[in-house]
Amino acid sequence: MTQVLSLLAGNELAGFILVLARVGPLFLLAPPFSSPMVPPRVRGIIAVGISIGLAPIALHGQHIPTDPFTLAMLIAEGMLVGLGFAFSFAVLFAAIESAGSLADLGAGFSYGNLINPVSGEESGPITHMYSLVGIGIFLAISGEAWVLRGLARTFTLVPLTSAPDIKSLVGGAEQVFATVFTSAVEIAAPVLIALMITDVAFGVVSRVVPQLNVFAVGFPAKVAVALLLVGASMPFVGGWIANQMSTSVGAALGALHIG
């Protein structure tokens, strides 16, 4: 196998394989690159194209061994770096969807879940809207350019022939994952507070006017309040998402060190 690799392209082919191993997890784990709205074949073609573009940067000053066992170890290490980098973006969009789920639960929309085109899972209409807004803001602020620049930076922090520091990588992933619930509450807080006040108000009304059918009146009122607050808070949500995307790139790169 070593002779075959040397005959085909030697250092260039082995390096391209390692770059693709690092780019691939982005299209398996991190929205919007991993979105089911993009066919798998298209995702594969884009991953190969990005790998071809990043290969000269990653291979600069590097000599890639063509020994099968060593190459397999480097591929596994490259995938580990790629997974760590993609995980930070997956957590960001998971927080956005979790915020939508909290709002759906409070407004009563969770009874009619539909397939979310972004994640391919069942979720409510507010979750759908938050997911699409997150994707729209990602594209509007050229988030894909941030991701590609960050991905190129990983080859400087952890070269193709080096192994990442597992302890630092796991610690960074832990720290990012711990922020999911807090971030979800931050996004959905205006809607949740308004719905809580609405519930308290209808509870008081039901005590004052027992003849009133609170369930018949309360559900459409909560829907109207939820939609009104979601629309009113959307500019703040957009700013939060834009700030967190830059933070996610920094957190992903900060967890990468040579072991």
Attribute tags:
elongated, 259 residues, mainly alpha, 10 helices, two-stranded antiparallel sheet
Summarize the structure.
Helix 2 (11-23) crosses helix 4 (40-59) and helix 5 crosses helix 6 (125-140). The protein is 76% helix and 2% strand.
Q: Order of strands side by side in the largest beta sheet? A: 1-2
Poorly predicted segments: 4-8
Count of distinct structural domains: 1
Derived from helix and strand composition plus strand pairing, the structural class reads mainly alpha
Number of beta-strand segments: 2
Mean pLDDT: 80
Q: What is the radius of gyration computed over CA atoms, rounded to a whole number of angstroms?
A: 23 Å
Order of helices and strands: HHHHHEEHHHHH
The main β sheet shows up as: 2 strands, antiparallel
Number of helices: 10
Q: Globular, elongated, flat, extended or rod-shaped: what is the shape?
A: elongated
- Give the N-terminus to C-terminus distance in angstroms: 28 Å
Helicity range: over 70%
Strand content: under 5%
